[in-house]
Amino acid sequence: MSSREKLKKYLAQRMELGVGKLVVRAEEPVAKPLALSQPVVKQETLFGGASAGLRDNPVRPDPNRTLESFYHEIKDCVRCPLGHTRTKFVFGVGNPKADIMFIGEAPGRDEDLQGEPFVGRAGKLLDKILEATGFAREEVYIANVLKCRPPENRDPQPEEMDTCSPYLLEQIRLINPKFIVCLGRIAAMQLLETKLALGRLRGAFHDFNGIKVMVTYHPAALLRFAEYKKDVWEDMKTLRRAYDGMELK
Ligand code: URA
Q1: CATH of the domain at 103
Q2: Domain count of the chain?
Q3: What domain range is 200 assigned to?
Q4: How far apart are CA 106 and CA 65, in angstroms?
Q5: Does residue 136 sit within a domain?
Q6: Which pTM does this prediction carry?
Q7: Any residues with CB less than 8 A from the CB of 21 and at least 6 apart, and which?
């Protein structure tokens, strides 16, 4: 491969990760340093399915619903073609009363086979990240934007995300976490309704209906680009500090 092709590939990979162009845009606002009291993005539209893509909300209000009963309601979903190609529906795993919820993109091959999110290589790395931050996997809740695997692990399509998002939003409502960590661009895009690159969303807590949202790199990205590990570590230390601060109150 020529160096020009190598550079092209490298830039394409960076764009894919949402790191953005290698250009300093001093005139554009960059996310402020992490400030718990000053969320940079106020997000209030999604609960209740009011936003444009979610008008056809299959989740009817039910005051008696629990996370477990919700699983039984939706586990046979075939509202999009992925429902016909999946092996297992991947609802989510962890503490139904978790203070912290991690949201990834979509099940991969291992998750599709086992019916649990983040059990493959990226999942093992997520477990290590959790452990290093002092959280047990059972203590937090882990879910994805999509509940079914896209064939060949391709990117989720916008229609698939809009079809599936009401499920995630209901999970968030039922769990009612204090913090959400978006793992990667797809989760951040969907939850915060933004097209900003991941690199620009890091470094500040965003607000989603009173829940503090942190955006960081997806563990799969760390498997390919080890240089992002230190950024994720900084993000996790910030999360830990904020969580500990909250517990003292
Ligand atoms: N990647 C994700 O985003 N989610 C999983 O569950 C596994 C890999």
Answers
A1: 3.40.470.10
A2: 1
A3: 32-53+64-248
A4: 24
A5: yes
A6: 0.81
A7: 11, 15
